[in-house]
Write a structure and sequence with these properties.
Order of helices and strands: HHHHHHHHHHHHHHHHHHHHHHHH
Shape: globular
Radius of gyration: 26 Å
Number of strands: 0
Oligomer: single chain
Strand content: under 5%
Number of helices: 24
Helix content: over 70%
Length: 602
Amino acid sequence: MHLLREKLQLCLRILGYGGHTYIGDISWLNDFCAEFLVFSNTVQNYISNQTEQDSLETICLCLTQVIICIRHLEYTIQTESTSGQRIQASHHHFIDRITVCLKRLCAALEHSKTTKCTKEGDPESSTEGVSFVTLLDSLLDSLSEFTRPDQDASHSTQLVDTQQDMVPSKQIKLQVDLLLGQALSFANVALQQDKKALSALCLKVMRDCSAFQEECQPNSGSIGSNYSNQKLRAMTLEHALHQLDEHISETLLRLVFTCFLDFQKISVDKIRNVLRTELDSTADEYIADFDVNLDRATQIGIFAITFAPSLKIKTTVRSCLASFEYLDTSLIPSLQSNTSDLHSELLEQHFKEELSKFKTALHEIIDSRTFVSCYLQILTAGIIAAEKQFDKVQLEDLAQMGFFILEHFQLGVNQENLLEIGQECFQNFIRILRECKAILMCASQVQPDRIIKRFKILRTILRKLHSTIAANQNEHAMIQEHKENCMVEEATNNCTDVDNFTGLSASPARSILYETHRNRNKSINGKSVANINTEALKIKAIGCLRRKQSLRTTMFKRQTAVGSIKLQNTFNSQSASLEISGLLDQLTSLTESFAHNPPKKL
């Protein structure tokens, strides 16, 4: 560890922003890359098979972020050379991020080595924490102790009477509070039509959990009746958790389409133009919408990380979220400032690249069949609405969402899901989608019925395309739309007071990597949660074999339980080393490219 700290200090000394070692040209950047390459090789050699997965993920995230910042420092220096202007703000932005990442990386290694962690260097504080999926899996396993068929009254009594501080019922209550906190955080950014249902389902889970807790009190009736009531309440809570899980799954995919669409409608360039030409109130509305969409992307990414099929894709998503996190506090201010536009243009370029990588990673994670199915539902609802009242803007949004399906199948990994006949259907889908886009451009000259007819043809072809996509192993778990809607409607009707969450609030915001001012403001009113055995949660989630299949398992290409265990076992020995080797190759390429660029005076 001493050698690692020495290499770190050498890197920080070369960075030396504002000091005598800081120059800020290509030669300076090349020197830093050379030293950072030595540091990264030392990190790779330092990692052992006993390194914790959380630490490995943090290490890969930090290395990825440093390489991204190096690339954009290069773009900054090249822009300065072309324009003849010094862009000091961009230098400060990326150097500050590199410094944070290097220090966080060493903190992760120290934690992994000593298994002790201070608050400042806690790798867990740089992640999304215990995930919704992990909590749900652990909850269902805990409830199985009360609902399994071979359970008897004597065993149930033992569960309640022993280890009063850590009895399963109390742990279940703590887990439910954490789960609902995350669900409410997601509901805060969900589409308006989904918020009420999500809030109602959260309230239903909370009430069922309270009823279960009452039955688990030591002196709540005779042993036999108490056992029967516990089992009934546990089964009711389990059903409510499945309802919440399934509705979050559907809501999440609809949010993906809306998020992608809003990133096109509320672009950085659009905000720049609005700031220049419109009133402050109009600009504030655009900025607020942009911030909401970033929050939505973060929530989507947190769920996607859980289902990423490899450490590489998981690191890509986390890196994009980390970049969004830092840009969230610097991109818009750069547009509002009166300084040179070069800094804001460099940050805009960075944001666009990260957004492109984020969308590509999501397309790799999302299941093709369920993605098409979700768009089919959105398209059907849009056609019904257009038949009642024609709205050109709404149809334009529907057509643009269709192009997200096109982007999805442009990836080779997703094209493999199309059967042979599906290729022909996909080409027909592209042709009709372009016709829909074209006919909307001359909508004033065409009867609305003819426009709607094109969209109905698109829907017909989309149904055929959906039927040609190879079904995955969890296809049987798909829940019929009518049945799901009935379940959600029933929960909504039974929980009319959806704002009554006494003692419960959305989870406080956690940083992905950077501790920004906005994150601190979000967390300032966050409640502290009682201690919970997170290690036990992770172990349970890995070995969970009884978890009921849900729509979420088909939405994302989730590994089977046995496959997850095998994947977990290979992370420490192979994945991290391969990932770091790939990052080192990128860094070597960067260093070689700098060597061919002679330093230029600014």
